[in-house]
């Protein structure tokens, strides 16, 4: 099969560009995060001042026999400073969000041109799988964050994605090449694409659950110490838990369909639906953990950190399956392109 080296080079360059744009976006998102902390502090200071002023009014009224409250001019300094801080924070959030969409565009171009370069779906090795996996994860995250205006979530999403892209472009990189004979099957694009989408959604769900655990440890308005300062700009625990749950609801069937399609492919290729290969075994464990999380989340007495920890465990096993099983363990799924 002919490989279009020009398109392969465009794909590589597009991924490097996306990586650079994501780095700049992360810097801007972190600045927005810190400015959000300042806005929250100013808002709380103003609220405390308002409460103190209201109390002073009550004391003055009582001192005058309760006949009439004395009007006290409210200093405009705090309010003006708060408005200015909010505006600076919004501008930084808008810049970060705009750059992230630019990065996603380059990321998608890298994925599409890689597929066109080799005239197939870009899932033929671990490099291509992580390329597609991270692209889907960024699109899903951007859709949620754009809709909910949770721009303070971006540092937590961008950091792991940037690490994955860096490893993908260095340690995991594989030259564009025809598909290995073992993967030339009708079931190849369906199995790998559904598993990739399911894993991407699971990544987002796992990050939400981790942040939910941080938030319930540091409740809103009661943050203390370093971790309290880190948690301050995060959405409420209820919202984080809700979106962890909603993304996991989609992850479970999509990932499960991917496993079933793999079993059908296994029967066609190897004459059995299931062989307890390391990768398929860990994938099944991951799916069971997602099912256990959803069950625990719907069970009375488990709608808290206990259920969230199960989702985090599913996230960890998914990452373990992606790296350790592909790079270290030997099995029928050893198609990382590094051996």
Kindly list the characteristics that best describe this protein.
9 helices; single chain; 339 residues; mainly alpha; 75% helix
Describe the structure.
The structure is a single chain. The protein contains nine helices and no strands. It is an all-alpha fold. α1 runs antiparallel to α2 (77-118), α2 runs antiparallel to α3 (126-148) and α5 (188-217) runs antiparallel to α7 (237-270). The protein starts with a helix and ends in a 12-residue tail after the last helix. The mean pLDDT is 84.
Summary, kept brief:
With 339 residues, this protein is mostly helical. It has helices at residues 5-63, 77-118, 126-148, 154-169, 188-217, 225-231, 237-270, 278-297, 305-327.
Helix and strand run: HHHHHHHHH
Could you tell me the number of beta strands? Answer: 0
* Rg value: 25 Å
Count of runs of 4 or more consecutive helical residues: 9
Mean pLDDT: 84
Outline: flat
Which spans of ≥5 residues are poorly predicted at pLDDT below 50? none
Structural class: mainly alpha
Give the SSE map.
Blueprint: H1 5-63, H2 77-118, H3 126-148, H4 154-169, H5 188-217, H6 225-231, H7 237-270, H8 278-297, H9 305-327
Helix pairs in contact: 1-2, 1-4, 2-3, 3-4, 3-5, 5-7, 5-9, 7-8, 8-9
């Amino acid at each position: 099969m002919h490989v279009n080296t020009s398109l392969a080079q465009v794909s590589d360059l597009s991924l490097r560009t996306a990586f650079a744009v994501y780095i700049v976006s992360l810097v801007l998102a972190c600045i927005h995060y810190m400015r959000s902390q300042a806005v929250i502090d100013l808002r709380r200071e103003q609220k405390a001042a308002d409460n103190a002023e209201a109390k002073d009014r009550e004391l003055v009224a009582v001192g005058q026999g309760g006949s009439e409250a004395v009007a006290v001019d409210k200093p405009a300094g705090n309010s003006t400073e708060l408005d200015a801080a909010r505006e600076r924070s919004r501008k930084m959030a808008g810049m970060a969000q705009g750059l992230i969409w630019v990065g996603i565009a380059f990321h998608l171009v890298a994925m599409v041109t890689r597929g066109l370069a080799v005239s197939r779906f870009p899932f033929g090795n671990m490099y291509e799988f992580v390329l597609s996996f991270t692209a889907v994860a960024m699109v899903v995250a951007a859709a949620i964050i754009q809709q909910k205006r949770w721009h303070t979530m971006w540092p937590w999403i961008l950091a792991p994605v940037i690490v994955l892209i860096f490893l993908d472009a260095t340690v995991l990189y594989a030259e564009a090449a025809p598909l290995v004979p073992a993967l030339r099957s009708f079931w190849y694009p369906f199995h790998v694409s559904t598993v990739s989408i399911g894993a991407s959604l699971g990544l987002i769900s796992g990050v939400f659950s981790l942040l939910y655990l941080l938030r319930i440890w540091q409740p809103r308005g009661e943050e203390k110490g370093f971790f309290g300062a880190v948690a301050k700009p995060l959405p409420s625990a209820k919202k984080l838990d809700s979106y962890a749950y909603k993304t996991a609801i989609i992850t479970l069937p999509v990932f499960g369909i991917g496993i079933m399609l793999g079993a059908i492919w296994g029967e066609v290729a190897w004459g059995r639906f299931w062989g307890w290969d390391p990768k398929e075994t860990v994938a099944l464990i991951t799916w069971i953990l997602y099912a256990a999380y959803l069950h625990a989340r719907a069970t009375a007495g488990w709608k808290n950190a206990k259920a969230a920890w199960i989702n985090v465990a599913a996230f960890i096993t998914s990452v373990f399956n992606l790296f350790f099983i592909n790079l270290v363990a030997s099995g029928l799924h050893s198609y990382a392109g590094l051996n």
